[in-house]
Amino acid sequence: MELKRGSPTVFADFIPHSISRLASHQRQATSATLHPPANPQHSSMARRLTKELAEFEKSSPDWCTVSAVDDDLMHWNAMLAGPENTPYSGGVFNLDLQFPSEYPFKAPKVRFLTRVYHPNVKSQSGEICADVINENWGPTLNVLHCLTAIKQILEQPDMDNPLEPEIAKQMHENKADFEKTAEDWTKQYAS
């Protein structure tokens, strides 16, 4: 299976613990030779990103995988399993990660490529509420921390910082309708 940026990924037999099978597909998509940033002053950042990518390839959590896009160390793709006991359960969500030249002092820009019905995610663009990632960001944090924060908002939305106020209102006023719509979107776009 070839992973393609921006296209939906279909896993008919997906179960959350099987996302580790996806890692081998992403490792095949990630060449052994990655292209570091052109600017030599960013060599420590390149070493850091190379190390983080290697750590993920050795021991990624069972709920997500990552790979470099087109051998570009500054651009990654992540696949995140929808958390159990949420409307996103059973779905596999593609995310796009862009690393700024100031990484790790500045958080990566992350957005969903897979459409998701969620109060903290822009339905059309996949933009994620900045507070989720940037609020406590520091150079000791890494991509796993970032993806864990995203998983946590899928489990427990941040109702204080909605990017989609109408979805937040629906979730607050009629949780059953919100969950049905979120489940429908998960089936349509993430499975």
Automatic annotation (TrEMBL):
Its EC number is 2.3.2.23. InterPro entries: UBC, UBQ-conjugating_enzyme/RWD. Keywords: ATP-binding, Nucleotide-binding, Transferase, Ubl conjugation pathway. It comes from the Eukaryota. The keyword ATP-binding applies. Residues 25-45 are annotated as: Disordered. Residues 44-191 form the UBC core domain. The keyword Nucleotide-binding applies. It is an enzyme of class 2 (transferase). GO terms for molecular function: ATP binding; ubiquitin conjugating enzyme activity. This is E2 ubiquitin-conjugating enzyme. It comes from Phytophthora cactorum. The lineage of its organism: Eukaryota, Sar, Stramenopiles, Oomycota, Peronosporomycetes.
